[in-house]
Amino acid sequence: MQIGLDFNLVEDLVAGVDEVGRGPLCGAVVTAAVILDPARPILGLNDSKKLTEAKREALFDEICEKALSFCIARAEVEEIDRLNILQATMLAMQRAVEGLHVTPKLALIDGNRCPKLAVPAAPVVKGDSQVPAIAAASILAKVTRDREMSAFELIYPGYGIGGHKGYPTPVHLEALARLGPTPIHRRSFAPVRAAWEARLGITDSLI
Fold first, then answer.
1. Strand intervals (E) in 55-199
2. Which of 56, 154, 176, 200 has its Cβ near the most Cβ atoms within 10 Å?
3. Residues 34, 100 within the same domain
4. What is the pLDDT of residues 125-151, one digit of tens each?
5. Domain count of the fold of the chain
6. For 33-71, what is each residue's pLDDT tens digit?
7. Would you say 105 and 11 are in contact if contact means Cβ atoms under 8 Å apart?
8. How would you label 56-81 residue by residue, b for 16+ Cβ within 10 Å and e otherwise?
9. CA nearest to 183, candidates 156, 163, 151, 201
10. Residues 169 and 87 placed together within one structural domain of the fold
11. Which residues on adjacent β-strands are paired with residue 108?
12. Are residue 170 and residue 186 in the same domain, yes or no?
């Protein structure tokens, strides 16, 4: 249920929802929903991309400690390839909101569209810079996904995943062309599909 309203007038039981990982060539898309506790304010909340890694890590722990409720959810690579990245993101957002142990009165979604939810929802363009609950969600999602990408660096060496986090940097594209896709690469994305098709001319098995 999508509604339109002045989100600045709503303070009680508002869930902020954001995602990280729509653009990368590999890994899951990770989402989070957060209901902040007005009695336990958290200073320094902002769009996760505007914060240092150290600040994000510190805020991650504080959000988990002080929030009334939070849920980190995801859509896996297989779901992204089957549904497309937009629909997989919407699914992951649904999972995040549904996973909250406190039912919000309103969900504010970063961006210009909302997933289908059982609670009222409204999109907020650049919400991670305007709405503290969305900023908190962006921090939880980014820290979670960045940690996963660092772990994948050890499982799939040579791609630089820990550095670029799966985004299509020159280093990543060169490694993809040279080494071929891994099981965590999104085959529905054009650069991965091209590398996979080129690889099929060499071997029938995925590395």
1. 69-75, 106-110, 121-124
2. 176
3. yes
4. 999 999 999 999 999 999 999 999 999
5. 2
6. 999 999 999 999 999 999 999 999 999 999 999 999 999
7. no
8. beebbebbeeebbbbbbbbbebebbb
9. 156
10. no
11. 16, 122
12. yes
